[in-house]
Amino acid sequence: MSGVRIHPTALVETGVEIGAGSSVWDNVHIRTGAKIGPQCIIGEKTYIAYDVAIGPRCKINAFVYICAGVTLETGVMVSAGTIFTNDRFPRATTPDLDELRSSAPDEHTLSTLVKDGATLGAGCRIGPGLTIGRFAMVGMGSVVTRSVSDFTLVVGNPAWPVAAVCRCGNPLLRFADHAPPPSGEASCKACGRSYSFRDGVVRENA
């Protein structure tokens, strides 16, 4: 693994792929089959499960739990203490209580996709089987129980859309009473990028 920095206390199982220029910090555990793209940072005491796919230039802070079935695209930020889940109806045992269920992925494992450029705030919880849209933001401590649209900020428990956000992270338009954005146009005051609002969807203008 050329150009990869792995702390001596990290546990990286066989069959893990780590891209050039990535760093894996202390007491991280990465399970077999996981794929980490180039130029990523995996913060201390983070756990990455079987076959998780992490794209280039992702930043995973400390104490993050990424379960099986999760895919992070390019440039995703996962802040400290974030927890992913992958089973809507988890049980420790089989229904008759005579056999412990395996922790390995099975037919109950649901997939979660976090798209390019999204940010997950510190201590948030991501429910199973969801999609977090491009450059979306999840506020710290939020509990996400439904998919999040592109360029949308959600906060709370359960998390609700409260604003549209720019690719650079600054707010574009605050929503009234969790309502979708009205049709129109807006430009980011920080970087000048422009966006369109149609049918409750935020789109970046070319």
Describe what you observe in this structure.
With 206 residues, the protein is an all-beta fold. A ten-stranded mixed β-sheet has the order 1-4-7-10-13-16-19-21-22-23, with no helix packed on it. Strands 3-6-9-12-15-18 form a six-stranded parallel β-sheet, with no helix packed on it. Strands 2-5-8-11 form a four-stranded parallel β-sheet, with no helix packed on it. A hairpin with a 5-residue loop joins strand 22 and strand 23. The chain starts with a strand and ends with a strand. The model has no long low-confidence stretch (mean pLDDT 94).
Q: Whole-number average pLDDT?
A: 94
* Widest sheet: strand ordering: 1-4-7-10-13-16-19-21-22-23
Coarse structural class: mainly beta
**Would you list the SSEs in sequence order as H and E?**
EEEEEEEEEEEEEEEEEEEEEEEEEE
What is the helical fraction, as a range of percent? Answer: under 10%
Write the layout of secondary structure elements.
Blueprint: E1 5-6, E2 11-12, E3 17-18, E4 23-24, E5 29-30, E6 35-36, E7 41-42, E8 47-48, E9 53-54, E10 59-60, E11 65-66, E12 70-72, E13 77-78, E14 83-84, E15 112-114, E16 119-120, E17 125-126, E18 131-132, E19 137-138, E20 143-144, E21 152-155, E22 160-165, E23 171-174, E24 184-187, E25 194-198, E26 201-204
Parallel strand pairs: 1-4, 2-5, 3-6, 4-7, 5-8, 6-9, 7-10, 8-11, 9-12, 10-13, 12-15, 13-16, 14-17, 15-18, 16-19, 17-20, 19-21
Antiparallel strand pairs: 21-22, 22-23, 24-25, 25-26
Please sum up the structure shown.
0% of the residues lie in helices and 33% in strands. By secondary structure, the protein is mainly β. The model has no long low-confidence stretch (mean pLDDT 94).
